[in-house]
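To the wet lab folks,

You asked to see what we're planning to order before we commit. Fair enough. Below is the target structure as tokens, and below that is the sequence we designed to fit it. If anything looks off to you, flag it before the synthesis order goes out.
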């Protein structure tokens, strides 16, 4: 599993989690990623995608931190069956590629500040 887990970004560009999810959909599709459903989980959005031939869910939303501009959080999580995890056959290449796609999209957007990966 990749060491860097959560990407924190600061921007005033999004009015809500849905706007952030729509930006992410566009950024992923621009890179040729096949995207799927966006699910509203009340306090966050979940964007489904296919990265490197594997299903990956991107969890994202605005944090409760009182910052100006607001802080947003996004992290990819590769979907694995419990059997693959149990047998130790889980390969996290798609999750690492998803992280690279996130970093590229955030860095090239130009409107994000304090782009930072953290493991918590």
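Sequence we intend to order:
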């Amino acid at each position: 599993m990749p060491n860097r887990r959560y990407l924190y970004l600061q921007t005033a560009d999004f009015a809500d989690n849905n706007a952030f999810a729509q930006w992410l959909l566009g950024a992923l599709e621009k890179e040729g990623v096949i995207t799927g459903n966006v699910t509203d989980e009340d306090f966050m959005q979940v964007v489904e995608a296919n990265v490197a031939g594997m299903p990956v869910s991107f969890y994202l939303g605005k944090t409760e931190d009182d910052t100006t501009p607001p802080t947003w959080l996004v992290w990819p999580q590769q979907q694995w069956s419990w059997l693959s995890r149990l047998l130790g056959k889980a390969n996290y290449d798609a999750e690492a590629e998803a992280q690279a796609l996130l970093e590229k999209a955030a860095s090239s957007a130009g409107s994000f500040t304090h782009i930072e990966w953290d493991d918590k």
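Structural context that might help your review: The chain has a mean pLDDT of 90. Residues 6-118 form a domain with the TATA-Binding Protein fold (CATH 3.30.310).

Thanks,
Computational group
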